[in-house]
Every structure is written in C-alpha cells, then in structure tokens.
Amino acid sequence: MRAKEKRLPDDPKTLDFDRMFLPHMGAAYNLARWLVRDDHDAQDVVQEAYLRAFRFASGFRGGDPRSWILAIVRNTSFTWLSRNRGSDSPAEFDDKVHTREIEPRGLEADAVRQADGVMVRAALEELASEFREVIVMRDIEGLSYKEIATAADLPIGTVMSRLARGRAKLARLLKERLAKEQ
Amino acid sequence: MTCDDARVLMHALLDDELDLTKALEVQRHIEGCPECARAFDMFAAMRSRLKDEALRFEVPSTLEENISRAIRARTPEASRSTVYPSRRASLSQRAALFALPAALAATLALVIVPRALKSGAGQDLANEVVASHVRSLMASHLMDVVSTDKHTVKPWFNGKLDFSPPVNDFAKDGFPLVGGRLDYIDGRPVAALVYQHGRHVINVFIWPSSGDTTSEERIETEHGYNVEQMIVDEMNCWVVSDLNPVELGKFAALIRQKG
Ligand SMILES: [Zn+2]
Description:
The complex is a heterodimer. Chain A is mostly helical. Chain A is 73% helix and 0% strand. Chains A and B meet through helix 1, helix 2, helix 3, helix 4 and helix 7 of A and helix 1, helix 3, helix 4, helix 5 and helix 6 of B. The complex binds zinc ion.
C-alpha cells in the first residue's frame, strides 16, 4: 500500500507550496495567536492566510518564504480584527516623544529577570498591536530587521524605532504590573 | 552621540543589527554613561525573558492537516493551468490522499531537479528523502534517541531494523552527531541519523543497497535543500540538509571515509 501512496500524483504546484510554506506554520500560528489573542480565531486566520497564499503563490518570486507567509498572516489578522472586533485601537504615534521618555524610571534589570512569567506575558498582550507584532517577530520568532521589514511592510529604520519604542512601552507596562503586585 | 540616539540604537545593538563602526560608537557611549548603561542592562534582561520558550504558542496538531485538506480541496480548479493536466489525480485518489497522515501528504515534494539521475526511481527516492527531511524538522519528531554518543545511538537500532547502520560522530570535524530515529523510505524502515552543523540540521538516511543503484551521484535542489547520495559498504546513504553544497560535500566525504 505504501508504494502506491507515495506514487500518488499530486499537483506539482500544491507540492511545491507545501514544501515551501508548511514548515513555517508554527511561526504563522504564533504570530496570529499573539495578534488576535484567541486560539480558535488564530487557527481560522492561519487557515485563511494559507489559502490566500496558495492562491497567490504564483506571485511568489523567490525571496524568503517565511517573511512572505508572515506578511499574509499579519494582513489577514488585522483584517480579521477590524471585521470582528472593530478597530484594535491603534496606538497614537507620539513620534515627537523620545523613546527615552517612554521608558519607566527605575526599572532594574534584576526586577525584569525576576518578574513572573505570567506577568511578562500579560504585559506583552496588553501592548498595542503595532508594537506587539514587531516584538513577537523579533524576540520570539527571531526574524532579522530585514525580514520584519518584509513581513510587516515597514522601512528598516521604522522596524528599529518601533522595536525600541515597543520595548520601552513594554517595560513601562511591566513596571506597572510589578508595582501593583507589591 | 546623544542619550536619545543611544536609547534607540542600543536595541539594534542588542539585536546584532549594527555595522561594526556604529556598534562601537554605541558601546562607547554606554560605557561612559551610567544612565544608558542601566537602560541597556534592563533591555538586555527583557530581551532574554522574551526569548523564553514559554512565550511561544505551539501550533495545534490538527491545524496542519486541516489546511493541507483545505488546499487540496481547491486544487482541481487550480491545477487546470498547470503543465501536467493529464497527471491530475482523480477525485477518488484525492480522497485517498486525505487519508494519509497529514505530515506525509503535506511533504511529498516533487521539486528536485535531477542532474545526474535520470531514472524515475532515483527521482522518486530523492523526493522521498527530502520530504522525510522536511517532515522531521516540522513535526518536532527529529529524534527518537537523543545522544551524541555513537555507542548509545548504534545499539538503539538493534531489533528495530534488520541491518546495523554505521554510526559515527564527526564532532571534531564540526559535524556532531545529535541523535537518530526510525524513518520510512522506499516502503521500508530505514535508519535516520541526525547531525548538526552550526544551526543546520543534517539527516542521513541509511538502508541496505540492493546493488542496482549507481554508487555516487549528486543532486541539487531548487529551493535550498541539497541532497547527496552514495553507497558505502553496501549501504544506501542519502544525506539531506539546507546546508550549502560545499559544506555538505565535506560532510559526505567524512561519511564516505568512515563508512
Ligand atoms: Zn547616555
């Protein structure tokens, strides 16, 4: 039976697609899960994104398949959010404020190291999605700035400043949670 | 450099995204500025917290199967435009495909461009080997026995296979053995040895040669998987990795020598 199964003809396009994009499903799900913040919704989003990707796969001309599929997952997530939850209240872009002024005062490295994991997770969940997505891509998925630029459709300079701001805001949220605990 | 600049650039420094000159400039500022040094330490601590595996959501096991199925359900119309209309599977064959384990169905890849191998059998094998390699990476089922000790890995195969695969560690050459597992290739159980080179994983599939395959062939793939096939001491050895062909060639040479 096995010999038959393995010779089963399948569409070359489908097989090519599988091999290139299915290995990135973990990254796709993680990103969707962090953006829509619900397991079932994230599964729907990933499925929709993969079907969309499959339809447009002929438009994929080399490059990094992971960034490409993540770009589609990201767009699908934001579309899903605006359709189902209204807007995700995009963060006001206080571009004139320096990153330094966003950082919390007196949060020490040791306090960050000792913070409860649940608290770190909750702080990241609370962070505005524009910042959450770049932090998830960089710190959890390990994408380079260039890959994030492709996936999030941002100039590389913006990737850097958004990460800096995002981490400063995250530090602030973490500090608030630590203060509440005491 | 001002503190305001340093507070942005230190993130790129942490992420290893600065060129050397800029990196030194930021480092110099941090060394001379206690306030920026404190911020840098705090963000470094934060970054390592975020890398914590527990923050990563694991993909539900059924999702891949669902998606694979959903894609195939669309294929009949999609495949009209392909160059192989006559090879399109019938609906009943498609139904049979759904019954396959999802991972297998998902990774039967036909993307290798054969150079040396013209025969259909060789091409089929190459496809299977690449599919197994990809599957081993994505199903988090890379290894059944995790050990860098060949004296642990080799006996592990005893009683599980009808042959004894050669197991060698090439750690001193930069290719440490990290483990092994049972796999299926060409409709039979085979030994899969897992090696590492930097961040690359190398799978070596081994099973007894039937004697009708040619001894040394090289195949290159389209999308970055490289495959080497050889026969060593009457064993078929297929080496697969996303490692570049030069490094993989070095590794294959080690396998050939040690047998
Ligand atoms: Zn400073």
